[in-house]
Amino acid sequence: MINIQKFLKSVPFAWEGIITLFKSENNAKIHLLAVVVVVISGFLIGFSENEWLAIILTMGGVLALESVNTAIEALVDLASPEFHPLAKKAKDLAAGAVLIFVFGALAVAGVILWNHFNYILSSIL
After folding, report:
1. Active site residue 66
2. Which among 16, 25, 51, 66 is annotated as catalytic?
3. How far apart are CA 117 and CA 81, in angstroms?
4. Which pLDDT score is estimated for 124?
């Protein structure tokens, strides 16, 4: 059985995590700025419904993965305050996962923007 009260009690903790992410993490702020730029561009260019779906999923994925990366880094720092090669490996892998997703997000944005700019150029020329 689903416990709705338990769920509702957990939501403020999740919001606290989101707020902490954007207050404390420089890379999250950069990703958030990119989200704002992409959303404004999408409205100006006129993204289709499918383009918005792709953009929303990739933006959400980057932000979520950045949050997971931050959590992994915090846990590694707690477990291994001194330098350890495995701690470095865990942190590097988590950061690398974010970067891989960012590359994918850039590819999605590139395809969408290329199609729009191609259409604009072909109508001008």
Report:
1. yes
2. 66
3. 49
4. 81
pLDDT tens, position by position, 26-80: 999 999 999 999 999 999 999 999 999 999 999 999 999 999 999 999 999 999 9
How far from each other are the two terminal CA atoms of the chain, in whole angstroms?
Answer: 62
Do 90 and 76 touch, CB atoms closer than 8 A? yes
Full-model pTM: 0.89
